[in-house]
Specification:
The chain has 114 residues and is α+β, with helices and mostly antiparallel strands. The chain is built from five helices and three strands; from the N terminus they run βββααααα. The chain has two domains: 10-63, Rhinovirus 14, subunit 4 (Irregular), CATH 4.10.80.400; 67-113, no CATH class. Strands 2-1-3 form a three-stranded mixed β-sheet, with no helix packed on it. Strand 1 (10-16) and strand 2 form a beta hairpin. The termini are far apart.
Amino acid sequence: MKTDLHPEYATAVVKCACGNTFETRSTIADISTDVCAECHPFYTGKQRLVDTAGRVERFRQKYQTKPAEAQRVWQVRSILNALDTSQKIELLIQKLKETRTNPEFLRELQRVRG
């Protein structure tokens, strides 16, 4: 058999993002992890968001509705609720063709309701 085929298997230090450290055996000397047994929700019973590279914050910024936008969505939905599906589609297509901006589109929809 070949000699020196396998890497050295030695004691390694594992460092968690929560600050916990412990030793194990590995071919890598220093290991970093985001979650360990001290902070994992399964073991602690507490839920925690693991924000890797700001992904959670970017998601919230992208999909969180601002109050003004929510009001506009509510207005459009209230106008369209009174119509059946084919009427909704026809109305939206017609108003999209007639208008050039979002505020103009909303004003036209409000006129339909009025």
